[in-house]
Amino acid sequence: MKDHITLAFFVDALGWRLAQQMGSFRDLTPHQYRQRTVLGYSCAAQPTILTGLSPAEHGHWAMFYRSPRSSLAPLRHLSIVPRYVAEHRRFRRRVAMAHRRWSGFTGYYNLYRVPFRLFGQFDISEKRDIYAPEAFDELHHGEPVESIFDLLRNEGIGYRVWNWRTPLDTALAELEGSLKADAPQRFALLYTAVMDAFLHDHVDDDAAVARAVSDLEKKLSKVVAVARDEYSEVDVLVFSDHGMAKVENTVDMMSAVNSLGLTMERDYLAFYDATMARFWFLTDRARSAITAMLRGSDRGRLLSDDELRSEGVFFEDRRYGDAVFLLDPGTLIVPSYMGARAAVGMHGFSPEHEDSDAVIMSNVPLEPSPSRIADTFTVMRRLVFGAGTQ
What we know:
The chain is an alpha/beta fold. It has helices spanning about 15-20, 40-50, 55-60, 85, 90-105, 150-155, 170-180, 195-200, 205-230, 255-260, 285-295, 305-310, 375-385, and strands spanning about 1-10, 30-35, 65, 120-125, 140, 145, 160, 185-190, 230-240, 245, 250, 270, 275-280, 300, 325, 330-335, 345, 360.
């Protein structure tokens, strides 16, 4: 029998409140902890979990940031394509696939409904696969940012990882097969977005959500049983990056900004995420008019630099925005660059909201209590490398 393995199941969007309501994974992972997520979306939260650092430290906050040397710049020529074609999901998927082949990028990104003309202004943050070593360009205290995969590689520890590219059932089958293989592993991480996709459409259907969570729990328990047949000691982690809130309201922020009589790319730049609007000011007139409009809104609030610093998402170079407007929980920008219609559920609201909280669950007690998603990195490191690891 092989010695020891840590199985880490990363379930995107399995929030604390949902896990507690459903009584999820209590037999498999009885030690369960509430975790505060980071401000932003999965493109900020996942790197934080994998590195233990804030977005300001690892460099990834939003999927798109302002860059005068955007790798997406060639796509701006597609602005001549008729709108009904340019906004079609299949067309954009094909364009993204072609760009990946041309650029060699291995990270996750989606073109969504971002106007093609703006790709000369905005670049993507995740150019390299964050589920592989050497994924980050930033420096932390003068040293390259290291993820859990850098540590594993550097120490020569055997591990396997499955990311968003592999469907859940395929990944589970491959994980089960790897557990039975002769070569021992010390760590396996399986990421799945099945709950995230499901909850965006069904977070308001408690019965359907309960069935989905139960089905996932059974699948993971089956793999853990195989691991226990093969290894004398099995540590099990089930964790998430954020929760999911029900959508109650929408606001047409694009129309509100357009009504100010300003010109995009001459007076200002804007990026309309689902729950945030980010602005860059090119003229004083735009700064004054847009700031006044945002401060007068009753659908959200303009975040101060001190708030951004406190949340670990302040960037001195303003690559992610001169101004960031965060909508109230349950309110979406519709239409936005993410979609033309409102989803049933969404994340990316204030980390203070109860539906934003993530969860980490284990079959062994975790001390000290991992109260923030950045602590998940420390938990994984200690389980693999030993309790004395700092």
